[in-house]
Amino acid sequence: VNILASRQEGSVLGFQNRWHLWSLHVQLSPSSLQVAGGWSPLVTDQEPWLQVDLREQMEVTAVATQGRYDSWDWVRSYVLLYSDTGRGWKQYRQEDGVGRFSGNVNSEAVVVNNGWMGLRVEVYGCAYKSYVADFDGRSSLLYRFNQKSMSTVKDVISLRFKSQQAEGVLLHGEGQRGDYITLELHRGRLDFYLNLDDSSSSRQRFSSSRRVAVTVGSLLDDQHWHTVVIERFNKQVNLSVDSHTHHFATRGEGQSLEVDYELSFGGIPLPGKPGTFLRKNFHGCMENLYYNGINIIDLAKRRKPQIHSGNVTFQCSLPQLGACTFLSSTSSFLSLPSPTATAPPGDFSVRFHFRTWNADGLLLSVPLNPEPQRLDLRLSDSRLHLTLQTSVQQKSEIFTGHALNDGLWHAVRLDTKNLQITLSVDKETPSTVELWEKLEIKGNLYFGGCPAVECQRSTPAFQGCMQLIFINNQTMDLSHVQQGLLGNYNELQFHTCNIRDRCLPNLCEHGGRCSQTWSSFSCDCSGTGYSGATCHNSIYEASCEAYKLIGSSSGFYSIDPDGSGPLGPTQVYCNMTEERVWTVITHNSTAPLTIQGSSVLKPHIVKLNYSTTSPQLQAIVEGSEHCQQEVVYNCRRSRLFNTKDGSPLSWWLDRSGERRSYWGGFLPGVQQCSCSLEENCVDMNYFCNCDADRDTWANDSGVLSYKEHLPVTQIVIGDTNRTGAQAVLHVEPLRCYGDKTLWNAASFYQESSYLYFPTLQAELASDISFYFKTSSPSGVFLENLGLKHFIRVELSSPSLVTFSFDVGNGPAVLSVKSHLPLNDRQWHYVRAERNVKEASLQVDQLPLRFMEAPAEGYLRLRLSSQLFVGGTASQQRAKMTPGVSSGCPGYCSGSSSLCHNRGRCIEKSSGYICDCSQSAYGGTTCDQEVSVSFDRESSVTYAFQEPFSVMQNGNSPASSVSTESLSRAREDMAFSFSTTHTPAMLLTLSTHSQQYIAITLAKNGSLQIWYHLKKSPHPDVLSPSSSNLADGRLHRIRINRVSSNIDQDVHRKYTLSSDAELLLIRSLTLGKVISKFSYYPRCEVRQAASRGFVGCLSSVQFNHVAPLKAALTNRGSSLVTIRGPLVQSNCGVLADSASHTMRGVAFAFVSLLVKSQDMVISINSAVFGKKNISI
């Protein structure tokens, strides 16, 4: 072998006894490196490299490294490049695109590293047999069959190719009946066309529009070898390009491929042949081309008669001058001198090719005389942008090209001649700029970037590849630049284009569209139903039950039954009018169907197509607690079972296509109807009403509820062909309730207890979410291990949750610290997610923590152990551990704040729900504001169903008042408002006995509470605050009158003129009062009643009645009267948020407490936070 190095200590030949760098072995030999010698570059060598020429083509299988013998020198990491010509190199990348290999940690066995770089290296491999054919873009190989046509049901075609051209046909064949097979390069990718259609119309379809079966690969025009294997059996095809395999079924009706006369490789030599299409021929080299075991190139070299070779040579031509890679977007540049002697003064030309994924970057900068004149060519928004700066305020510019950041090679030509600048890209029409005088170059030309001392940078440096650089028609040899003989450079990689396609494979999930830059990729999730960095998270809830928990009402919803799994969202109807939440899935045959004339031999078949796919249906059914489907069968002389042998005359198919003959209420295998189960069949000699075979109408309806068989996919009716026979069939939609994934809780009573599950399938993405409550200071929530990889979520300390994992880049740790202990026996929410772009950790409502994945790191998480929940696999334990039980008892007793604002916590077998029916608030935990925007004409009147006494509803204690068992709340009112209009009527309460309560805002914005409890014309007027409350901020009012026990925090005392009760309450009105104003003797009240209220009213509560919520949810109720415009909004939430942003929420408690006839009112202001619990 020949060995070259960048700069080494001593010459290669001078090593002799010390030098033992390379040797080749067919198999590994672990002791082969245990010899003296090694290589170390000079300390001044900033870009050391070592090159080994194997002298012939070899198949390399492994590389081993070791530090330099008897030294402190070794290599920690390295990159590996390979080439079959020594002129163009390609970086070898491991799985996930990782290009850097781990080196050594010491030279022999010592770990301390205080030396320099040193290396002993050995390559393992074997001999390689190569048959090559070179195509010049006009040549091809024709393999002619021995007969007129070749018909095959199985084909295997394999080849290797390399090319610098992005277009060209590699393989083509077709037959007269319409079959065809084509493999071609198109835009640097492989397009594969295959049709096995033997119909007469296939030729017409083929000629009118080419149908791409599949497109694979990317950046295949890089002048490096790529391996292609096509395997076909009947219609099933495996297409492999390098390490990526795509499986698909071909279009067409046939099973065999029929090709006439010949197969062509490298092009289509007969453009006039009917049915063919003109495409560019292949320009490059093919190797080891096999068709069904036949070595095509070997036959061509031996000039066999079945091969026709036109202008094909059997040695690959040398590639063009090598490319260079600009690595940094901030500091890369290539500086080249201008050979001015080769062009007239003032004229110069520059040509080069470039490829990149970045939309912006400086391509060329030419300093001109006198300063600050400059000519800059840059990529701007994926177009070429040429700027001629002639003075500080004067410049000329032109744009040309589009979508030039597509990763393909683009040819650029810039000429200055005859007082004109001409710019062209690829084959587009040139653009020009007129000059007033000739340009004079000052110094060097800068490609890809510019040093800060030379130019002011307003555009990032170019990241990408350049090749074929010509200045004044002279070739710039980049090897001379690398050797320091020509120009200067920084952050460049020579003789290689190190471009990667980060969108191959597409790591965006659920159909997300991948786009990329040089160093990263991003996903466009619009229209997919998913969100997140890789479109991993569904934007829809998983079930109707989940929608109910967030406060939704009945309607059509999109649900995603497997969350972030592969199944997409589907639309269902959620019926939330009952205690159970029903998921309703419709089908195409909901109307009753009349059936006649069917027999067992010629039955009537009803196929049911559902609004969701079969996998989605299965996920919904399996995730539900219960599913059912009713089948209604009305019959007249139409039997279900044969009375002689009991064989079914009608049956149905389950979701797997299995035949079922039980009808309603019975377990599988029992051929009976529901009337037999209920013992009410019309004739007890039969198990079904229809089997009595009467001339009158009968009915056999039943509910199918065996989940494993639902839904019904097909019904077969076979006994309606006799005289007078008729049947009417009606199949209801599939209905399911319950979500088994909600509150699937478990309790762990011992430190050694845990649950285990199959290995977590989380190679590229995973999300983990759960609730927990504990009193322990620490513990592992979840753990799954691999050989070196792991993923773990744990409570590291009483206030710290940690999410850690390792995919091969070293341990990554995300932590969220709470200012309050998390082991407080209250429920806390945790969600951890990891994908190829980032990782995140959320705990309760604390700030979300993010961590970006390294751009050049490993992506796949390799796990092998079982998934442990509630424990860790690192401790040795038995598989079955005591101390684990299903469910977590005491949800409601475990926390007093699960349900808010009068919401009632109801225990469930696995979890809890909040009953918000007596709360003015909505949502899962009764903490969502119910707000309405009012104008002058708006009003809501709630009429009590019967003469109503507050005394009958005194069992709802005020939240802020401690009462004894004998105390009774007379009025318990609460609401929020915001307005800027005065005077205003907020709330009025009237009775049949001429009593009333009115809450108003006076002209100055002060709050006034009017109590008229006795026949006296003078009501009690309470003014707890003189400040202006019409300030646009949110104010919360609470009024509570109790007959005893004054709260200890009350600061102001009022005395009502009467301790009377409100008797026979008639109605409660919000906003404008329409009734006669004479009802209110005081002019202030009358004025406020007539003016109404303009602003936001929110969460209105009177004892157990929520009138505003009733108006929104029961608009057709006779108890609620709505006048004027009434618009539901989130004004309460917005006002609350705005108030927080300003000075804090003005929170007014008005506690009316009576002892004898004394009333005490306290007003407090505070800022409150809310705790939301969502599932």
From TrEMBL:
Membrane-topology descriptor: Single-pass type I membrane protein
Fibrinogen C-terminal domain ranges (all copies): 535-587
Keyword annotations from UniProtKB, A to Z: Disulfide bond, EGF-like domain, Membrane, Repeat, Signal, Transmembrane, Transmembrane helix
Gene Ontology cellular component annotations, sorted alphabetically: membrane
All residue ranges annotated as the F5/8 type C domain in the record: 1-114
EGF-like domain location: 499-536, 889-927
Name of the protein in question: Contactin associated protein-like 5a
Keyword Transmembrane: yes
SUPFAM superfamilies: Concanavalin A-like lectins/glucanases, EGF/Laminin, Fibrinogen C-terminal domain-like, Galactose-binding domain-like
Subcellular localization(s) per the UniProt record: Membrane
Family: Belongs to the neurexin family.
Location of the Laminin G domain: 132-316, 323-497, 744-926, 950-1131
